[in-house]
Specification:
Pfam families: Hexokinase_1, Hexokinase_2
Number of strands: 13
Helix content: 40-55%
Distance between the termini: 61 Å
Strand order of the largest sheet: 1-11-10-9-12-13
Largest sheet: 6 strands, mixed
CATH topology of one domain: Nucleotidyltransferase, domain 5
CATH class of one domain: Alpha Beta
Protein name: Phosphotransferase
Radius of gyration: 22 Å
Number of helices: 16
EC number: 2.7.1.-
CATH superfamily of one domain: ATPase, nucleotide binding domain
Structural class: alpha/beta
Catalytic activity: D-fructose + ATP = D-fructose 6-phosphate + ADP + H(+); a D-hexose + ATP = a D-hexose 6-phosphate + ADP + H(+)
Keywords: ATP-binding, Glycolysis, Kinase, Nucleotide-binding, Transferase
Length: 458
């Protein structure tokens, strides 16, 4: 067997300018293809049926839920106008048992969580209906502002009897079973929610991005270009790109570790882009590389090529461990020792071990930031001249970004912005803003529910 050196391994994750350009070109091609394709296997570029952004003056009280890859958030959202909101929110972890169980069990649980929220805020409206906006972080084919067929569920979900069914019916059936008078008046994707909610407080927002357990993006497109759309006539519409499902292996710079992650995932050859940049998979990339390096005696030589049992389980090296290690700025990289001792029971790392592990983790994190920046550039270029004005010196374009990777991973936002500027050039890049958009799912869902329920233009 050829010995894999440390430099060989790390360099697999270093992107050249040519590789970055291939990502931009490839994603752009898929963005264009998604505007017209009616192939049910192509879940990209889903019309949201939302045709305008909020003004910032909206008011009212609405329920919202945000179902992501890790947690369910339930919220009572009070829109106060002037871009201000009051939110009472509760977070519930989605267990592995729920993720892989029946659809009925999942939606009964969601109804129970909603009931808990209503008790917490002492919200009793008698027999009147409570209006709810729903953010659903999985692929749906929207058929109306409050209806959508579930197309696919990644992120470790394997629910039975859900794919192909209408999400409004699934949710409201659960509410009926739990005696809750709640009606779903709007369904949006989490990235659409991020875009809508951040536009409520920052009108220059043109793109919404999620960088968390998974990743996705939404942007504003001229409806005339969305040839597969057959709804009411409108000028512009927010599209849920589902860029997580983009990324054909022909243009993605996949390493052997990326390919292994894909092959062992629930759905191989699906969400290949997401598997290279998101919070669920970055730590696993590190683990696979570490296992390889240990076996080749390129690090932790005192283990004599034997991988510790604690490092052998799939997904055992969490992305949050990468954050812990990159948060340590000391030359000794003591964060590496902390993670390996407390989590994996491994002691005795040499200064060279710590330095190499830090460099591996930094390089994988930097690749994720650069690839996400490249995807944002593809969206900016696709919308340029329509809803984005890249060459207008007086135009600022804001990208609202929600998610733990963007918020908590050290230097991720800085690395993204540096990559954006390098790709677009200093002049264009200086007019792009990356802003944290917290809790976009719930607030965005409430905003769209308000507009839909009040009969506004959506």
């Amino acid at each position: 067997m050829t010995t894999t050196t440390f430099e060989d391994t790390v360099n697999q994750f270093v992107l050249s300018k040519e590789q970055v350009q291939k990502i931009i070109d490839g994603l752009t091609e898929e963005l264009v293809e998604g505007l017209s394709t009616t192939d049910p296997k192509n879940i990209t570029q889903q019309p949201s049926f939302i045709t305008r952004l909020p003004t910032g003056k909206e008011t009212g009280l609405y329920l919202a839920i945000d179902m992501g890859g890790t947690n369910l958030r339930t919220a009572a959202v009070h829109l106060l106008g002037d871009g201000q909101v009051g939110v009472t929110m509760e977070k519930h972890e989605i267990t592995e048992k729920l993720k892989t169980g029946t659809g009925e069990a999942m939606f009964d649980w969601i109804a129970d969580c909603t009931a808990t929220l209503l008790k917490s805020v002492a919200l009793d409206m008698g027999n009147s209906e409570l209006q709810m906006g729903v953010t659903f972080s999985f692929a749906i084919q929207q058929t109306a502002i409050n209806r959508g067929r579930v197309l696919a569920m990644g992120k470790g979900f394997g629910l039975s009897d859900v794919i192909g069914r209408d999400l409004k019916d699934l949710l409201e059936d659960g509410f009926v079973r739990k005696n809750l008078n709640v009606k779903v008046s709007a369904i949006i994707n989490d990235t659409v929610g991020t875009l809508v909610s951040h536009a409520y407080v920052s009108p220059s927002t043109k793109i919404g991005v999620i960088l968390a357990t998974g990743t996705n993006a939404a942007y504003i497109e001229n409806t005339s270009e969305v040839t597969k759309y057959n709804g009411p006539s409108c000028d512009k519409m927010i599209l849920n790109t589902e860029w997580d499902a983009m990324g054909k292996s022909s243009y993605l710079p996949q390493t052997k570790y990326d390919k292994e992650i894909d092959a062992k995932s629930h759905v191989p050859k699906f969400q290949e882009f997401e598997k290279m940049v998101s919070g669920l998979y970055m730590g696993e990339l590190v683990r696979l590389a570490l296992v390889d390096l240990i076996e080749q005696k390129a690090i932790l030589e005192f283990l004599n090529g034997k991988v510790p049992e604690s490092l052998q389980p799939r997904l055992s090296f969490k992305t949050m461990f990468m954050s812990t290690i990159e948060s340590d700025h000391t030359p000794e990289h003591t964060g590496v020792d902390k993670v390996f001792k407390t989590t994996f029971g491994v002691e005795g790392l040499t200064p060279e071990d710590r330095s190499r592990i830090f460099r591996l983790i930094h390089t994988i994190g930097l690749r994720a930031a650069s690839m996400t920046a490249a995807a944002c550039v593809a969206l900016l270029l696709k919308a340029n001249g329509a809803t984005v004005q890249l060459d207008n010196p007086n135009e600022i374009t804001t990208i609202g970004i929600d998610g733990s990777v963007f918020e908590k991973y050290p230097h991720f936002s800085h690395n993204m912005l540096e990559a954006l500027t390098e790709i677009l050039g200093q002049e264009r890049g200086s007019r792009i803003r990356l802003e944290l958009a917290r809790d976009g799912g719930c607030i965005g869902a409430a905003l769209v529910a308000m507009v839909a329920h009040s009969g506004g233009a959506v």
